Structure of ABC-2 type transport system ATP-binding protein:
Amino acid sequence: MRKYVIEAKNITKKFGNVTALRNVNITVRQGDIYGLIGDNGAGKTTFMKLLTGQAYSTGGELELFGAYLENELEKNRSRTGAIVESPGFYPKLTVEQNLEYYRIQRGIPGRKKVEETLKEIGLWEGRKKKCNALSMGMKQRLGLGIALLGEPELLILDEPINGLDPSGIVEIRNLLLKLNRDKNITIVISSHILSELEQLATVYGFLSRGWLLKEITAEKLHECCTGYLKIAVTEPERYAALLEKEWGDIHYQVMPDNAVHIQNPQLPTEAYSTLAFRNGIGVLELEQRHMTLEEYYMNLKERGRLSC
Ligand SMILES: Nc1ncnc2c1ncn2[C@@H]1O[C@H](COP(=O)(O)OP(=O)(O)OP(=O)(O)O)[C@@H](O)[C@H]1O
């Protein structure tokens, strides 16, 4: 069993009369890439701020690397690195000078550390650039570099791919995967780009208005979302009636575009097309589809809870 890095038990956070988190239970294990998903105002940043010590809970218990007493928790925060809200760079200093500044400020020994970090985040070539001349992608990488200076075991990243172009997104993704794989760094990451999170996360937590709707591993989610068969036919209504007659307990949906979506099909694809052919119905399109993370999330929000 992998060790717990974060255990949030019944965490509540109120800002005056605004409740940002309500009895939230979140568990992150060593080596996880934990994707926090939720609409604006769901409580993602607040949760991350509780982890970094930028805010404190008003109820419940937070454990970081097994410690929950405030002074021990604080000590363990030194084992984390974070980008929560934009890191402050000195615009007139170069990339290298900014990193050097933060190294000294945090009391991290060894000048070599800056060089190693620059190479790790792919900013060695751009180290002499002033921060006010950096692209968004370079800024995000520098932010990550500052977070990495203290050799964290846990990275907390609030929307680190926000505002990046497609190649910037791929660069950050590959960097995070490498850090996770090679250094076993546990990562908590939030993003509104679900198709991107899908390529990174090993566990998901879905927040809505301060409630944790669901926590599920990527593996389990994938199993649950075996998805549906999309079969577009010339006579969808008649085809739907035939489906029911042939397999009574089948779950399907007739879509506005002549397609019928068969949920979790139990038989080989041909069985469903043959049924149409046998009854003189034309098959226009046949495609096995997995539910995307985005579709799962939209369903979850609509229904509040899903069976898986
Ligand atoms: N310092 C604060 N004072 C008062 N209310 C706050 C404060 N910080 C956050 N909130 C409120 O708490 C709720 C959760 O905000 P939070 O920033 O955690 O959401 P989020 O999921 O990160 O949203 P986004 O995707 O927009 O970043 C919101 O209603 C927000 O207005």
